């Protein structure tokens, strides 16, 4: 959907002062600790969609700075609206920032070892072989993540797509990441699991959810 077709989109984006975009960041990089005004750990979700996961995470992760990254304005605006709705209902989501950008520039927007954790939730599978580099778990992306993650930093990746999951596992192994956790059927085994919008949809049709946690290789 085009941004101009989303009712109120332009006004909402203009009013929401915690949203950044690639066009401004590429000319004027920021130190994210300064943006938040503290030294708390920074976690990012790449491809956050409508922000369900990020807002739920924010509500149970005080003392953590959260940044949601999304390529499309038409989707990002839904996250803005969700944040505003929850804040109007009294929730404190002051630890959230959003960036509208393509994740391929991720290592130009964050400094070396600036990030504690990356969440990848139900990333687009890009099933054609010739598009493998675009998958957010390809070795090209893992290389970018390696630069911005702190030593000991990790990635938590969930998907319903077994082919993408197996591909990601191979890419992580080939790039030297340490596998800390793997399941092909998360089920209800982890009470601390935070649901995403896509996850709710897949669970409602009994599709198993795969999850891995991988740790950045040491330098
Ligand atoms: N994470 C959400 C969830 O689990 O409900 C949304 C999943 S949806 C399948 C994938 C999202 O990632 C879409 O909103 C898409 O626009 C975004 N996305 C895909 N490639 C991206 C990229 N290279 N940079 C930033 N966002 C991207």
Descriptive account of the structure:
The mean pLDDT is 95. The protein has an eight-stranded mixed beta sheet, with helices on both faces. It is of the alpha/beta class. The protein has helices spanning 9-15, 22-27, 32-36, 52-60, 73-88, 106-109, 139-148, 162-174, 197-204; strands at residues 19-21, 42-46, 65-70, 96-100, 115-121, 149-159, 178-183, 210-215. It folds into two domains: 1-105, 3-Layer(aba) Sandwich (Rossmann fold); 112-219, Vaccinia Virus protein VP39 (Rossmann fold, 3-Layer(aba) Sandwich), CATH 3.40.50.150. The chain contains nine helices and eight strands. β5, α7 (139-148) and β6 (149-159) form a beta-alpha-beta unit. Bound molecules: S-adenosylmethionine (SAM). S-adenosylmethionine (SAM) binds next to β3 and α9. Residues 46-49, 69-72, 75, 102-104, 121-124, 196-199 line the site of S-adenosylmethionine (SAM).
**In what range is the share of β-strand residues?**
15-25%
Please give the CATH class of the largest domain: Alpha Beta
Record field, number of beta strands: 8
Helical segment count: 9
Q: Any idea of the CATH topology of the largest domain?
A: Rossmann fold
Order of helices and strands: HEHHEHEHEHEHEHEHE
Shape by Cα distribution: globular
Radius of gyration: 17 Å
Oligomeric state of shown chains: single chain
Q: List the uncertain runs.
A: none
Supply the number of structural domains.
Answer: 2
